[in-house]
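#struct-queue
[09:14] JT: dropping the first one here, sequence first, then the C-alpha cells:
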Amino acid sequence: MPVLRNLNVTIPKDEVLRLHGYPSGRRPRPIIEQAITRQVAVALELILPAAVYDFVNVRRMDTASIELDGGYCLSVGAQARQWKGAEYLAIAVCTIGPSLESEVSRLLAAQDLSSAAFLDAAGSVAVESLAEIVDARLCRRAHQMGMGGGLRLSPGHGDWALNDQAQFFRLLRPERISVSLSRSFLMLPLKSVS
C-alpha cells in the first residue's frame, strides 16, 4: 500500500470565496478579500498532504454491494452501478494533517471568527484539491496497467454506508499518515477524504 507525500496542493482563492457565498465573478469588499488571501497563505503553510492507496481486486458486484479480495464487502448502495464491470477498485485515504484544524480551533478560542471561517474553508478546498490530485494519479496508474478510470465516490455520500470507512482502514492502515477513525466512522483529522 503506497504512501504519497509532498504533493503539490493548491488552494484556489476563488473556491474559498465560493464557499463563502461569492459566485464566480462576484468579488467581496477588499478587506474581506485580503483576509481570505491571508488565510489561504496560512493554510498553505500548515497543510501536510499525504495519502495512502491500493488497488483491490473485485470478486463480485451486485446492484448494491461490492465484494473485494480479502473478504471485504462494501455496501455502496445504488452507486454500485457507477462501477459496473470493474475488475479493481482503487481505494485511498487522503489528509492535509491536523495543523490547520488546530489553528482553526485556536482562532475560535481567540474569538477571531472570520479568520477561523476563512482558514477552515481554505482547508476544505485544500483537502478536495488533494483528493483530485490523488484521483488523477490513480487514474493514470490504472491506464498504465491497461485499465480505465472511473468515478470517484466516498463512503457516506449518497447511499454508501459511512461505516465502510472501517473497511478502508483495515485495508489501508491510514494510521501511517496519521489518520484515525472515530467510533462514529468520521476520520480524524476531519480534513481527510476517502
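[09:21] JT: and here's the second one, same format:
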Amino acid sequence: MTHLNFVTLDVFTSTPYSGNPLAVVFLPEDPAHALTQRQKQTLAQEFNLSESIFVHPVTEATKRTIDIFTTDCEIPFAGHPTIGAASWFLTHSANPADGPGITTLATKSGDIPISIQDAASKYVAAQIAHNTHIHGARFGVKELLRLHPTLAPFFPKDDVTFPLFSVVKGMSQLFVELGSLEALAAVTPATGGDFVSSEYLDEGWRVGLVCVYFIVRGVWDDVSGREVIRARMMLGTLEDPATGSSASGLAAYLSLTEGRAGQDLDYHVVQGVEMGRRSDIGVGVSLDGEKKIEKVVLTGTAVSVSEGKVLVPQA
C-alpha cells in the first residue's frame, strides 16, 4: 500500500475555514502494512497542523480508536482532535459502520464516551477525563508582563496575580483574566518565545507544558445571542484558534471556585476571533453534593473541508 485516505476537518465551527483544522488519516486495514510511530510523525509534520489523528481499523462495533500527534510528538489527549473525531464518526462519515451507534472513542488517555448532543446542528459531546488540581503558587503580573509586555497599559498595579490549574496531570493552564476586548486584542506571542515554567506547578504535577489562557468574561456575542467567555491561548510564540483542553480546564476551575454543590454549569467559550478563525467551544461541568467535579463534557461541531490520498512515508 503506497497511499492512505485522509480528510481534513475544521473543528469547533460549522463554517469552513474557521475553527481549528484537523487532519484525519485512516490507517491500513492489513496489519502487515501498519505504520510505525516515525511514519505517523512524518505525516503529522507534513500536514503541519496543531494536531493530526490516525484512525485504527475497526475491531469493536461501538468503539473507534485514534492516535493523536502534534508536529513534534504523540500526545494522549487533546480537545479539538477528540471533538473532531467524534464529529466524524457520528455525523460525517459515509461508512455505514459509523454513525450514532458509536459510543466510545479510545485514546492513549483512556476511553472517552461520545454522543450526538443535537442531531439538527450536529453538535457532539465527549465526556473527558479529569483529575483537577488548583496549584498553590500564583503567577505575578511582573512575570506576565515580561512575557507579554503589550499588556502593560492594562495592569497599572503590580500586585495582581493569576491562578494555575491542571484539569489532569500534564495538562495545565495559567488563567489571565482581562477587563476588556481591547486588552484581549493587545495580547501578542510571548517575547523571545518563552514558556511559563512547570516549576510554578506543585510538586508531583510538574509535567507537560503550561498554556496561557487569556479570557474576558461576560461578553455579549451577536452570533450566538448570549453572553460568552472570549479567549485566546498562547504557548510561547504559538497561538491556537481553539483549545478544548484549556476551555475544559477553565470551566472546571470556575465551577470549583464559583459553583455550588450539586450544580450543573454550562460555559460557552469563543476563541480564535483575533486570528480570523472563530471557534465555539461548549463545556458542561457537573458538581456533586460535596462540590467535587462529577463530569466534564466538551461539546462542539466540525465541518469537512478536504479529502484525498497521502503517500505513505518510508519506514
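[09:30] RK: nice, looked through the second one.
[09:31] RK: The chain is about 15% helix and 40% strand.
[09:31] JT: good to know. The helical segments are 37-47, 79-92, 141-147, 181-185, 244-258.
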